[in-house]
Amino acid sequence: MSPKSRLTARRTVQLLVGLVAYGIGVGLMVIAAVGVSPWDVLAQGLARVTGLDFGLVTILLSGVVLILWIPLRQRPGIGTLANAVLIGAVAQVVLWLVPAPGAIWADAIVFAGGLALVALATGIYIGAELGPGPRDGLMTGLVRRTGWPIWATRTGIEVVVTAIGWALGGNVGIGTLAFALLIGPMVHVTIPWFSLRARIDAQRAQRRKETEMVP
Q1: In 3D, which of 30, 47, 45 has the Cα closest to residue 164?
Q2: Between the CA atoms of 206, 212, 214 and 215, what dihedral angle is there, to the nearest 10 degrees?
Q3: N or C: which end of the chain has fewer CB atoms below 10 A?
Q4: How far apart are CA 169 and CA 150, in angstroms?
Q5: Residue closest to 171 by CA, chosen among 7, 79, 36
Q6: How does DSSP classify residue 215?
Q7: CA–CA distance, 196 with 128 (Å, rounded to integer)
Q8: Measuring CA to CA, which residue among 101, 25, 36, 154 is closest to residue 45?
Q9: Could you report the per-residue pLDDT of 35-59, keeping only the tens digit for each?
Q10: CA distance 37 to 27
Q11: Contact criterion met (CB below 8 Å) for 118 and 25
């Protein structure tokens, strides 16, 4: 196998591991029932209104978001499409298989574990660099087309989806606030851990340095 093929295979495996882990994390946070992330609040609200499973609604919602990419001239990658399908599917499997804790302290532990797993998984799948998730692409597309600051764009999107989801019956709670406050600093740490490009650049820099040291 050529070096390029090995790198492609490694990136694909990293992407899939990250997305599966992300779906498990989302499922755990939903099970904890102390509040979920803004987009999951919306998915919960829509699931409550439509009677559809949370995971299916998450997938369908990703599809709607991808349609919004069209006027923004965003191009999905293989990671984008995998993200749209896998996270919702895996989260739903977790909801089917894992029982609710049933105690406040256990709910807190399950939520914390789900949040930590989501942060770790975000670094893993983004590090594969095979395309942003549908929601991230919506944010970056709006930033590019409107010139709005990233923080204002992301905050505005999440306030809107949280409000709609809450109005539809989605679970807004202390977990929602914890997610909003902690996920940014956490992924700031995890993304560099798994960035293949950063590692490749570092390896190339080291090889150049070693070459320059050879008399």
Answers
A1: 45
A2: -170
A3: C
A4: 28
A5: 36
A6: -
A7: 6
A8: 36
A9: 999 999 999 999 999 999 999 999 9
A10: 11
A11: yes
Q: What is the pTM of this model?
A: 0.87
Domain of 88 in residue numbering reads as: 3-213
CA dihedral (149, 150, 151, 156) in degrees, to 10, reads 90
The amino acid sitting at 84 is A
Tell me the residue type at 178.
A
Structure tokens at 125: 């799948």
The number of domains in the chain is: 1
Q: How many CB atoms lie within 10 A of CB 120?
A: 19
Residue 66 near residue 84, CB atoms below 8 Å: yes
Quote the tokens at residue 38: 């803004």
Indicate the residue type of 105: W
Which residue's structure tokens are 């997305």? 19
pLDDT in tens, 111-138: 999 999 999 999 999 888 898 899 989 9
